[in-house]
Amino acid sequence: MAGISLLNRRQALAGIAMASLAVTAAQAAAPLNAEDFGVIAALPDDQSKAMQAALDAAAAQGATLLLPAGAIFVRDLQLPSQVSIEGVPGATQLTTWNGGRIAQARNVSNLVLRDIGFDARNTGTIDGDALLDVTGSLTVTLERCSFANSPASALRITDSAVTVTNCNFARHADAAIHATDSRGLLITGNSISDCGNAGIRIWRSASGPDGSIITGNRIAKVDWRGGGNGQNGNGINVFRADEVIVADNHIADCAFSAIRLNATNNSQVSGNMCLRSGEVAIFSEFGFSGSVIANNIVDGAAGGISMTNLDSGGHLAVCSGNIVRNITPLSLVNPDTRPYGIAAQADAAVTGNTVQNVPGVAISAGYGPFLRNVMISGNVVSTANIGIAVSVVDGAGPVHIANNLISNARDHAVVGMAWRDIVEPDLITNANRFANVTVGSVTVGKTPQS
């Protein structure tokens, strides 16, 4: 009996201890209200000191900090770890005070920002490069936030792992999101518009694994105020960052490219809608290796899809299942661009694509001697000046053309090129004159006019 009583007593003490812990956890989880720390919304005065006190208190207790509706004027807030900061949906706005950066998170973890607006209100300058700066941080989440009117960028991410979901970015002089040396970003479901130089940049200071995933975003109206010949004006720009996925985004009206990969390895670009690009819609360029470009729609561009720069080591690509249509006769931002649908140079399979309405070459293989191991098969080409063009100069590598359908080629179906000059107008018949070219079945015809 004594043993049973002792056991029951131990169980009772354990229960009391568990209940005490539950009460403590509940108390710790109780949200804090920023107004209780003196934060006053809509007061045109610097609220930074009161806001910082509220942030620090919430972090110390592991509590959620609730922000009031209205504009709260602050600068250079230091966001802590282990805290959720929540605003009133569509109503809470952190506004820069005297051109200061609104907030930064340095070396933090487990930080959540939800339903908060960040607005520079078109101040002429801003300290730092963005409204919000995240550096050296892990497990940071931005959800249903908005960023507007920055004279620089909206969100700058450096050496961090961040999730940006269902946020809105509008009217930024540089980029909506500029990320460098990331440790795995998830950028999904966001709306981005009216940016001066870029929508989303995923860059690295040196080539290496990045692992960012950019999916389901809507990007429109990206200018190239910074000039150049492709550094600016892109909806999504991936530079030196390997193992990046760009999928199922809707991208329209970018001055240069909807999606531009530069010196990347093992990149996937799939299922994207790319409309009215000012230069090449999807570009894999310079020292890239291992680009999969599949099942995208390109409608309106000076060049459709390009996988080039063998001279800089660019090679190894799959271009499959894409629709490319309505190529423009010229590029207003890059006069050197000649109209084409798809271009490949090295170790590339161009298969199962549909290319239509090109006032130039629908599918191009190589440029001068920069050509090696290209397969062009199973494609449907209709209404182009030239269906397929292949470099046949000395030093050009192997190309195999088979099982393509070419309809309504205005000038020629398949030609051999020496740089920009046609040296063989009928490569189907005369492929045996060129050691680097083999041609299988090619169906050439005209579509009946309705």
UniProtKB/TrEMBL annotation:
Domain Right handed beta helix per the UniProt entry, residue ranges: 134-222
Top-level lineage group: Bacteria
Cleavable signal peptide: 1-28
Keyword Nucleotidyltransferase: no
Regions crossing the membrane: none
SMART domains cross-referenced by the UniProt entry: PbH1
This protein's name: TIGR03808 family TAT-translocated repetitive protein
